[in-house]
Design brief:
By secondary structure, this protein is of the alpha/beta class. Strands 3-2-1-4-9 form a 5-stranded mixed beta sheet, sandwiched between helices. A hairpin with a 2-residue loop joins strand 7 and strand 8. The longest helix has 29 residues. The two termini are 35 Å apart. 37% of the residues are buried.
Length: 355
């Protein structure tokens, strides 16, 4: 096996951000690489930017957008590398990200997927604001990783862009094109079921942009709306006969419960509701509950009473009402901080360099 890296970028109508991303790809210290851009039916100047500014990039064009999973599968089909790196078109990475990930992957035991460091950032009033860096644990059981992927209340520690994927993995697996959301969690989980082990290493540095603009993975579509319930229904079947069935039951049950509330009274999900209820019961669900209950005991009692008396529809309407009347809370980005350490300043300078 060689060490050529294929960088696969899916994009749609965001040529300024794509330009920054591709400049960042050029700056990677690992030289044995190729860049593949899958253009999801862009109507802006993406094609001319690619042709005039990045002639070395291999371009796959979809005249009609097929979704992020289909775009990544198309990138895999066009790739000639031994390792694959999936990259969103609005994110950035440290110049040594790929080189350090590759080094760690080569040192890892066989059939290990190595995930590195990542941190969120945002540009606020022209300034770089940073969230703390994070990384998956160096030692964690496959069952614990599966629980993280299924539990809706759990903080995620891995992303598809924090790791290099061995090309051989895609000889038997592919991105699920029915999922426009949770598709990365699904691929992580199926990799584990196929005998791969995910390990964290304090290497590289991936920068995830937080903003209010559109992402290739977002947008109002029927596929995206129904992806979360389909994801949990899929995994309720995949894990039915798995040896770790009992260990994953609570996480899967919570995910199904959250979908039951979210999808109630959604016309497009009407046919999925009986399946969600059946899966919830099959995984030990006896009474409906809120997966993120209020901290105050009295409020918890009120919420549970609404569920007992009014059922899922009443809870769905209640949560919508609360969202409308609740005073605005500080969002996630408001908790970001300006660079405070030497490492922070280094990261902020790298981000500014490609803006």
């Amino acid at each position: 096996m060689g060490n050529k890296i294929s960088i696969i970028v899916s994009t749609r109508d965001r040529s300024p951000l794509l330009r920054s991303t591709l400049r960042c790809a050029r700056a990677q210290t690992w030289s044995d690489k190729e860049v593949i851009v899958v253009d999801e039916g862009s109507s802006d100047d993406t094609q001319s930017v690619l042709a005039t500014e990045f002639p070395e990039v291999k371009v796959v064009r979809h005249d009609v957008a097929r979704g992020p999973a289909a775009a990544r599968n198309a990138g895999v089909a066009a790739a000639g590398g031994d390792w694959l790196f999936f990259w969103d078109d609005d994110d950035l990475m440290h110049p040594r990200h790929l080189e350090e990930l590759l080094g760690a992957a080569l040192e890892a035991p066989s059939r290990c997927l190595v995930t590195g460091r990542q941190r969120d950032f945002a540009i606020v009033s022209g300034e770089v604001m940073l969230a703390p860096a994070f990384c998956a644990p160096a030692k964690r059981s496959d069952t614990e990783t599966l629980i993280e992927l299924l539990e809706p209340t759990r903080q995620r520690t891995i992303t598809h862009s924090s790791m290099l994927w061995p090309r051989e993995l895609f000889d038997t697996l592919s991105w699920d094109e029915e999922l426009a959301f949770n598709d990365d969690f699904d691929l992580f989980g199926r990799s584990i079921l196929a005998g791969w082990h995910i390990v964290g290493r304090e290497v590289g540095q991936y920068f995830i942009r937080l903003h209010t603009g559109p992402r290739v993975t977002t947008g109002v579509s029927m596929r995206r709306l129904l992806s979360p319930p389909r994801y949990y229904l899929k995994w309720s079947e995949l894990l039915k006969e798995h040896p770790e069935h009992a260990a994953c039951a609570s996480a899967l049950r919570n995910g199904l419960m959250e979908q039951l509330i979210d999808m109630t009274d959604v016309d497009a999900a009407r046919t999925l509701m009986p399946q969600l209820k059946a899966a919830f019961r099959a995984w030990g669900g006896r009474h409906f509950y809120l997966t993120h209950p209020p901290a105050h005991r009295f409020k918890r009692a009120v919420v549970q009473s609404i569920l007992y008396v009014g059922g899922l529809s009443s809870m769905h309407r209640f949560l919508e009402l609360v969202a409308r009347v609740r005073p605005p809370r500080s969002d996630y980005i408001s908790g970001f901080q300006p660079p405070a350490t030497d490492i922070d300043r280094e990261h902020a300078n790298i981000i500014r360099m490609y803006q």
